[in-house]
Amino acid sequence: MGSAPSLGERDYVREGATQTAVKILVVGHFAVGKTTLIGSISEIEPLSTEETMTQAAEPVDDLKGVQGKTTTTVAMDFGRLTISDRVVLYLFGTPGQQRFVQMWEDMARGALGALVLVDPERLADSFPVIDLIEHYGLDYAIAVNHFDGTPLRDERALREALDLLDDTPVVTCDARDEKSSAAALTTLVRYLLDRTR
């Protein structure tokens, strides 16, 4: 069996360009669309640790509002997105269930920021997620994943409900749509750049 071809730096970076790798977390509560967002936007085949949900999870995974969900992330999702000659995003999606929170510390290490996906019909489920991101000292943007058949929410009401700082970006997105997911990530990256200037 032959060995796989090795990839050199020029396979990833245009000649003469210096590229910076940026680690971004994609976080949110259970069944909010993290795996879907990374899958919609990753330029590589995303790594996904989706597993079929079993009866053993029924007592701990609240499927209210997400009937029909049959799989769940049990470790992480990973994708990559080059946004310019100079910047490539490495996207790490965290599992949403409380029992996997212990993995967040390692995943947060070295991350520049986080995109927090929110379901407007289950805002209270986002409080523990935002608390964790703030605990790890990460800057973040909120991406309201607009689901089919749900009304658009007023941004001021969302900000108040989530107790956000005035400068925290809030965007509406459809995690299934590549352009919409890209726009949400672009909002986060611009915010992070502004914070480092």
TrEMBL record:
Provide the protein name: GTP-binding protein
Q: Which UniProt keywords apply?
A: GTP-binding, Hydrolase, Nucleotide-binding
A Pfam family annotated for this UniProt entry: ATP_bind_1
Is Hydrolase tagged as a keyword?
yes
Classification via InterPro entries: Gliding_Motility_GTPase (IPR052705), Gpn (IPR004130), P-loop_NTPase (IPR027417)
Q: Which organism is it from?
A: Streptomyces salinarius
Q: Does the keyword Heme apply?
A: no
* Similarity-based family: Belongs to the GPN-loop GTPase family.
